[in-house]
Amino acid sequence: MLQYVNVSIDGAVLRATKGSSVLDTALEYGICIPHLCHVSYLSDIGACRLCIVEHVQNGRSRVTASCTLNVEEGMVVLTHTDKLRKLRHNLAELLVTQAPNSRAIQDIALRCGVKQVRYPFRNANCVLCGRCVRVCTEVWRARAIGFVGRGKDRHVEYVLGVKPDFCKQCGNCVQICPMTITPCDGPMKPGKEHLCSQCESQLMIADQNPGSCVWCKLGESFACGRYA
Amino acid sequence: MYRLNSVRELEHLRRRLCEERQNITTTIMACGGTGCQASQSRALIAAIRHELSQQGLEGKVRLRATGCHGFCEQGPIVIIEPGNVFYCHVAPDDAFEIVSQTVARGKVIERLLYTDPVSGAKARTESDIPFYQRQDRQVLSLNRLVDPCSIEDYIAAGGYSALVSVLDRVAPEEVVKDIKASGLRGRGGGGFPTGRKWTECREAPGDEKYVICNADEGDPGAYMDRCVLEGNPHLVLEGMMIGAWAVGARKGYIYVRNEYPLAVKHSRIAVEQMRELGLLGNNILGTSFSFDVAVARGGGAFVCGESTALMASLEGKVGEPRPKDVHTVVDGLYHKPTVLNNVETWANVPAIIRNGSAWFASKGTKGSKGTKILALTGRIKNTGLVEVVMGTPIRTVVFDIGGGAVNGNPIKAVQIGGPSGGCLPVSKFDLPVDFDMLREVGSMVGSGGMVVMDEGSCMVDVAKYFLAFLQDESCGKCLPCRLGIDRMLEIITDITEGRGTLKQLDLLEELGETVAETALCGLGKTAPNPVLSTLRYFRSEYEAHIKDKKCPAGVCKALITYSIDLDKCNGCGVCLRGCVHGAITGKKKEAHIIDAQLCQKCGICRSECKFDAIRVV
Known about the structure:
The structure holds two protein chains of two kinds. Chain A is of the alpha+beta class. Helix content of chain A is 23%, strand content 16%. The chains are: A alpha+beta, B alpha/beta.
């Protein structure tokens, strides 16, 4: 039998399933928390940090990722304070300047309020969200790909660098990858990277209701938990 | 050696060892620590041993290769009992003189004594040296009493008596209460109250629990854990055993950096000796307590010093941190409750048990108790390991113990706490070494690395160095640490190469705060500290780089030019011969000229010139 706990998210006391994460609970109740590395049927690693929330405990608030934070009885969580919005904006800015060549990333940046960027663009092919690695490991139990290298050299690669027999080329890693969704105008050429912001109209309602999900189309491309 | 089956047998062994040792009164204690080994102490010890046998003193004099004595700058160090004579900078060739004069006749060799650089007076013993006078050496002073490879030495020096007293009469809850009352806080960086950690682990559900000693020290310029583990592994192991007894663990690990071969070797020997004596294994000393320790070598990553990454590495996985919303005291190694403490924290435990928590709590400040070992390095006269009471002002450490600047250049800043710590200017030197006070001003005690910088160091360059270090050592798992540090480094490189704008400074500050708030683990959360603290205290230097395109300290190569002062240059030609790029021209006995196009700003000419004629602007 399912057990429930009561948590307070943005002041609303919600009944959450014991053992679920704050992010899942919030999405279930229509509270919008932008996220990227979280996929509903995969384990969470807390890599993208976009889903940060403030966890208030004994009068002190601590910023932490909501995907790895499990609900507890009496927990108080804030998801849309000014501080969080600023931090999320800065993270999305880092993300979109690193890898602008994807509709998913552009949409996330737009949702987090990035209207202009302060860093030069790079054109990376991977944002290391780890979705592919986890789908291969957890759903197909193939462990054909994994993270290799440390820090700047970290990348996704076949284990030992060659395609192993147990990779059945199912293509799930490609399907789930946010970088395979090209921008609407086609891939950006090197040196021509820019903020897309063609979907700014999507924010008309969203901006007026900060913190609640308005079923904007921005979540579709990267499989926002609400669409899953 | 035989297996000890009861507490009485251990006490009997201790008595027997002490009686045996009474006959030999003369002891030569030569430092065999890593610092001294680098200056040939191994050859020195061999030479002394040879000399002793040559002069027929073998059975009458004890030669002990000890761990680090702390004053590494003066190494190799030899101390001779009786008389406590302190010799420094001893070469293997001095062995004959030491044995024939000091050991055989008790005559002090003036030449080898320490000379105070200020007064010029000779110091005969350790207590006469200003470097030692202001210290309170609780942990380090034990190093000279034991040979790290000899459990007999440790037992004769009163070792394992704290363990015995605990096993014999004290309930585990009482031990935890004692540690809590002592106010001991983690020495590894965070300063988390050790007593609270133990309590939480003790109360955590589960029969299987672990204790781990974190000896994966990797901060640039810090080596206190290394020297404690190398010099006195049994002290650390005794602390671990007391901790294991207190929290109910049956298995312990020492996670030691593979780059510390001597620490790996000594801790392995120590564990082996303890197993032989029955101090590790089942039913230790006839009690119900069973405990074993394994020595694990680190995987070679700085991030493995972080608790969850360390545990992942111990489990055989990639050393990457994981979210710590559930603490490791509940969900640690193999998802079992685990106490992870730093080497120095464990080394403090036996003394607390032996002398009582009140004794420990009487030292230090309100929030930080006991003593802390600091690794004093940089542009300072007396480099080495320093152990001071918590609350000692930074000024005392840098000027009284450290002896001040090395070459007369005024001291500008001190970087405390390794790459995650902050740089503090001289105006903050009256602050005490205290966990809370230093955190307030944007630095931290950290593991205790203390790098002193003088006017010749560019603070922007220092921040860049630490950022580059952390970018290299970041595991790359979370976005803010991987990309945030990368972008910060990009901006700072722009500044040091003259492309910076004032707007970038605010961006740098904002980005630093973002990374500090949102990163996954302690490495990322503290990574911006060097930048944020230098921005806070040395903003004018950043502005000089941006506005005037000048590096005030003359370090950042893109912003400086080398030229020769025509009045000072007498045309000796040393610089001309030294310049590997052929950028200097000039006739003999006439002033030389540097070709700015060819000059690579390596600084060789500047260090070669005896007339101080090379100017850097």
